[in-house]
Amino acid sequence: MITILATFVAAPGNEDEVAEALREYVPLALAEPGCTAFAVYRGTEEPRRFILVERYKDRDAVDAHVASAHYAEVARDRIRPLLESRRVEFLVDL
For site-directed labelling of 61, which of 34, 37, 49, 93 has its Cα 20 to 30 A away? Predict the structure, then answer.
């Protein structure tokens, strides 16, 4: 099992657009056969900050996710240009 912990900080003024794109993106990711969980959280004190917690069966499932059309169209092409910063960590269960 691989968990991805991603932290996005929207550029000022872009936070609602990022939130809307993420709401569209979550069900697309969850429909992937190798995705076992995908949740997004928004900071209450820092509303420009989003935390994504994604779980995949294995590295092949992560690779399939990154190769998907919705990853390119929504995550890469729509969300990333709206961000001030982005950090992604790959984690494995102990």
Answer: 49
**Structural domain tally of the chain?**
1
What percentage of the chain exceeds 70 in pLDDT? 100
The rounded distance, in Å, linking the Cα atoms of 75 and 66 is 9
Q: Residue 58: which residues within 8 A CB-CB, separation 6 or more?
A: 1, 2, 34
CB 91, CB 72: distance < 8 Å: no
H-helix segments, 1-94: 15-30, 59-67, 69-70
DSSP E strands: which ranges in 1-94?
Answer: 2-10, 35-42, 49-56, 83-92
pTM score over 0.90: yes
* Domain around 48: 2-92
